[in-house]
User: What shape does this take?
Amino acid sequence: MEYGISTRCLYGNGEENQVDRSGAVSFPIYQSATFAHKGVGESTGYDYSRLQNPTREQLEKVVASLEYGVDALAFSSGMAAITALMELFSPGDHIITDCDLYGGSIRLFDNISKKNGLTFSSVDCSRQGHEEFEKLISENTKAIFIETPTNPMMNVIDIEKLAETAKKYNLLLIVDNTFLSPYFQNPLKLGADVVVHSGTKYLGGHNDTIAGFLVTSSPEIAERLRFLIKTVGSGLAPFDSWLILRGIKTLGIRMERAEKNAGRLVEWLCQEKKVTKVFYPGIPSSRGYEICKKQARGFGCMVTFEVETKELAHRILKDVRLIHFAESLGGVETLITYPITQTHADVPKEVLAANGVTDRILRLSVGIEDIEDLIKELERVFYV
Ligand SMILES: *Cc1c(COP(=O)(O)O)cnc(C)c1O
Assistant: This one.
């Protein structure tokens, strides 16, 4: 029998802990770089923590279970995970990416992956018709890389439909699932091959640890990724693994509460005259609403909005007190971000303009505060 998702946040698939026999309810932190052998060829299953460490392994089991993967690998950051993932490809390989991606991913592809001989085409996967999309596919195309909802414009991409195209042309479909977290969306179940997470965000959930994950439904890819993590050495440290394990325990209740808050803030923003646009897939008239409803169990806690003027945007960022003006997302504290100078600072100007990321766009990562306090904070900063 399969556990429900909130139970899996605590116990993964419920496999008995083979490592620690103490009965500890909180999985111990194995702060050890190396592990002793009883004799030649006799390993406890752990040799050296770059390869594997019991605490990291426990975390990986929980995340694999949340995303329905055959395996999950925990990295020192989301970017370390994506960097390792790019090592699956060879010079000359071509990857199609959605145009509205996390700025750090665009920076990696533009500066490191291209240097290593990979080529990229970027399209709006939420708008692209099937035929137009297929025109981009060449003999060298190996993968499609997307996020949904996208960052920061909250476009929704139909994962199942894209997975069909990927299968037809034998391409890997990679989905960065950071924004909805496994609590609301499971891309592998919809046909994706690899899921990426910045564990720094909802999985960790407390704005206190940097981490990243790759989860896959393919045993063959899992084996190649295992080789990569031990070879490049970007696995997550034991203590940080423990912090993310602890964060995940409350993923369900955090997501429920933050999403409820987000819904209320969206209502407030939609009636506010100085707000010219609100981007949130939970708005029934929004382009992504139906697809998001079909493929996810929630609309998430990220809200992007546009205000009347750049001056107002800057004033809001200066005046917030309860809400922090800070990069990142997915924690219990509500953060407000200015994509154009923060998360997307290294994205080419033309790309930002095409996506509608202007100097009037602000992004909220809604936390778990009392909703009345968040609304009072918005009322104050709009009218000081
Ligand atoms: C933050 C983020 C990343 C990068 O993760 P880090 O943990 O900061 O390295 C990748 N994708 C998305 C969608 C993110 O929000």
Observations:
- The first helix runs from residue 5 to 11.
